[in-house]
Amino acid sequence: MVKLRIEVGPGLRGKRQTAVRAAGRLALDDLASSITAQFLPQRVEVAQEQLTLAAAEWTEVEGHPHVRFRARIGLELSATAQSRAQAYEDALRAERLRHVTDRERLTYLQEVVLADPALARTWWLDCQREELSKLSWRDFNEKVLPAVGTADDAHSRAMRAAPVFAEIMEQLAADPGRHKQFIATFRVVLEQMGWDAAAEQLPPE
Fold first, then answer.
1. For residues 172 and 182, is the Cβ–Cβ distance under 8 A?
2. In the chain, which residue ranges form alpha helices assigned H by DSSP?
3. How far apart are CA 91 and CA 94, in angstroms?
4. Structure confidence by residue, pLDDT tens digits, 91-147
5. Residue 61, domain extent
């Protein structure tokens, strides 16, 4: 809805009213566009108020110093525009929610899961439960432990040492003589530390 009023100076009163009104309408269009371009469709009511205030005062038409206009304008979104505006608002809300959820998830992972070595191991195993047959503790030691808040606990140190012992045993498997020597030495170490039960579990020499 548009109600346009145009006022002309004495020097233009004999001019063609069609041309004068066209100049006024163009000036009104420019004014309306400069205001509505600042607002998203869902803020049409705010744009309406801003436009009402701006168009209520007599405004000189640029390039026509003896022509002024003022108007009453009603803004209204078409059904298509309303649908698009709602779809945009829904998508924007969903994206913001996703960012908030991701931030909370990552904060929890950093502050809770990776701050506890035991929990970090459990989390890693849970993430890799479909691929455990293809992964090793070496992967965990190299990729996860550096991110753990207190990776120097006894369990973490033991896990870092485990692949070393596994590699040693693989090498000894190809050398029966050195394997026998290693077992004998290891047995003595366990007995000296008072771990007789562990020593008894070693294979016979």
1. yes
2. 17-36, 44-56, 79-108, 117-127, 137-143, 154-173, 176-192, 196-200
3. 5
4. 889 999 999 999 999 999 989 888 887 788 778 778 777 776 676 777 766 766 665
5. 2-76
124 within some domain: no
Residue 37 domain-assigned? yes
Which residue carries 């002309």 as its tokens?
A: 8
Q: How far apart are CA 57 and CA 54, in angstroms?
A: 6
| 166 part of a folded domain | no
Indicate the pLDDT class of residue 152, thresholds 50, 70 and 90.
Answer: low
d(CA 14, CA 106): 74
What span, in angstroms and rounded, lies between the C-alpha atoms of 203 and 191? 14
Residue 72 within a domain: yes
pTM of the model: 0.41
Q: Which distant-in-sequence residues (6+ apart) come within 8 Å of 140 by Cβ? A: 121, 124, 159
pLDDT higher than 60, residue 149: no
Name every residue whose Cβ is closer than 8 Å to that of residue 178 and which is 6 or more positions away in sequence.
172
pLDDT in tens, 23-59: 888 888 888 888 888 887 778 888 888 888 888 888 8
The number of folded domains in the chain is 1
For residue 104, the model assigns a pLDDT of 94
CA gap 131, 143 in Å, rounded: 15
